[in-house]
Amino acid sequence: MRDIKIFLRKRVIILMIVALIIILLVGLFAELDKFRRYIWGVEPKVTFLGEDLTGYLRSEVKNKVYQLSSHIITYPIAAGLDANTGKINSELKGKIVDITATVKKITEAKEGSQVAPTTYQITPFLTTQDIKKINHEISTYTTIIKGSQSRKENIKLATELISNQLVLAGEVFSFNQIVGPRTKKRGFKEGPEIINGQLSTGVGGGICQVSSTLYNAVQSDQFKIIERHSHSKEVGYVPKGEDATVAWDYFDFKFKNKLATPIIIKGKVEANRLKITILANKKE
User: Fold this and answer.
1) Distance between start and end Cα atoms, the chain
2) By the 8 A CB rule, do 141 and 276 touch?
3) Residues 154, 191: contact at Cβ < 8 Å?
4) Among candidates 164, 180, 178, which has minimal Cα distance to 263?
5) Where do the domains of the chain lie?
6) DSSP H/E element including 100
7) Is 6 exposed, middle or buried (0-12, 13-18, 19+ CB in 10 A)?
8) In whole angstroms, what is the distance from residue 199 CA to residue 193 CA?
9) Angstrom distance (rounded) from CA 277 to CA 267
């Protein structure tokens, strides 16, 4: 029994010594950390966006700058065209925090300094000036409009929908995507259309003249035809084989802008004429 007590006492003493060593080491490490922060850390009472960064080390400063700067960042918005009016919607520049420069300012700041983030602006890929330069006519095509009043109204509506469309460099233009569903609710009328080689009627009948006119306007090396379908019967408003039929969610007309700069599609219906013009930067 006495041997057991002696053994337990020794174990307790050993545990107490180990615990004491651990406590001393923890305290030592804490003091070493304080010393390290005193030597290499941020000066006392240096604040960044209202937060005290006293004693922060460089890696901690960097993480804190990332965290606190997130609400400052704004992304650029490119200029564009109002599809209804053709007016230019001006670009908005973005703002981003220069993390490296801001961290340097904080770590080198004197005691009590209030450090503001270093920021720089980001210009969007397309500006108002870029769009203003898209004023040179590179192609145009005109067709004669015939037929019923409802057919003419469908042509006019589809022309208005594709007019003022900005097609970026390398972008694919989709007639169906821009014109959308041909429904009475959207203003389309019953008009003549060709189905399986026979003349029939349907909502939006006649708008294939718009897609066909556009097709002829982009037949050059500056564009690549991605999708095009011929009517099952010859049409009279373009030469044989030069038409482009469309049907919502079925047949589409698509082309790719191969130029290094954007283009603008302009469409106009005057009297009995449909004219589609392609504008580009003059250097193209």
Assistant:
1) 103
2) yes
3) yes
4) 164
5) 42-133, 134-280
6) helix 99-107
7) exposed
8) 6
9) 6
- Find the helix or strand (DSSP H, E) in which 166 lies: strand 165-167
Round to whole Å and give the CA distance between 53 and 145.
73
Token digits for 247?
Answer: 């049907």
Query: 115, 101, 3: which is closest to 54 by C-alpha?
Result: 115
- pTM exceeds 0.70 for this model: yes
Mean pLDDT by groups of 10 residues along the chain of 284 residues: 57 57 52 68 90 90 92 94 94 95 93 94 95 96 95 96 97 97 93 73 90 97 96 88 92 97 96 96 75
Of 32, 102, 120, nearest in space to 63 by CA: 102
- Per the CB < 8 A criterion, the answer to whether 170 and 150 are in contact is no
167, 257 contact by CB (below 8 A): yes
